[in-house]
Amino acid sequence: MTIIFAHRGSSGTHPENTFAAYKEAVRVGAEGIELDVQLTKDDELVVIHDHTVGRTTNGTGFVRDYTLEELQRLDAGAWFHERFQGERIPVLKEVFTWMQSNDLILNIELKNVTVDLPCLEELVLNEIESFNLADRIIISTFDHYSLKKINELNPKIECAILYLEKLYEPWNYAANIGAKGLHTHSPKTDRVMIKEAERRGFPVRVYTVNHEERIKELLEDGCSAIFTDYPEKALAVRKMVDK
Predict the structure, then answer these.
(1) Where in the numbering of this chain does the GP-PDE domain appear (predicted)?
(2) Which residue numbers are catalytic?
(3) Per residue in 9-51, pLDDT tens?
(4) Which end of the chain is more exposed for a tag (fewer CB within 10 A), N or C?
């Protein structure tokens, strides 16, 4: 069965990377959540996509220039709709605590490809280990050196290469750095690659897929997972395809 990951939570219907979006993903039945992690000024692990706070909060400036206490004073929901006023930027350990009450799979994207975040890998792994969540976590990033480091530090954690363009035999490239999954951009993903990668034991998880027809195609192609902003819609399509 193709797993449905809620991309930044149910981000098409709720403010991305907030507990409102994560709880909605659970409510509609998504099996997984994808979120983004980076560091504050005081090296706390927070969940936000952009390196600046202006798009998704009422603040301005770079995430890295805020302490955790300062970040958590910002409103991360009202930009989406007034009914979400008061939503905060989550701390990763808060998400991990919440995961004790469900059986979600969590994809953590490390936001370190354009900004240097020293020790991000070690800090994330320490939190995963302290909450005993290694078997429910996938780590991805566009920084493949970072994935290599993760694999060397803890090969039990599944890593997946995140990439935009087509790669020749991406399973070989992934294996070279110790990654076990392929997180592929939907426009650059085709049936032949999916079938061959899955045959070789490399799950293909496609992002970010919001249109019903494309969701249906990928389900029929047999990819392991889909990342979508609209998990309820994707689940409805999957139910229809599975009939």
Answers:
(1) 2-238
(2) 7, 49
(3) 999 999 999 999 999 999 999 999 999 999 999 999 999 999 9
(4) C
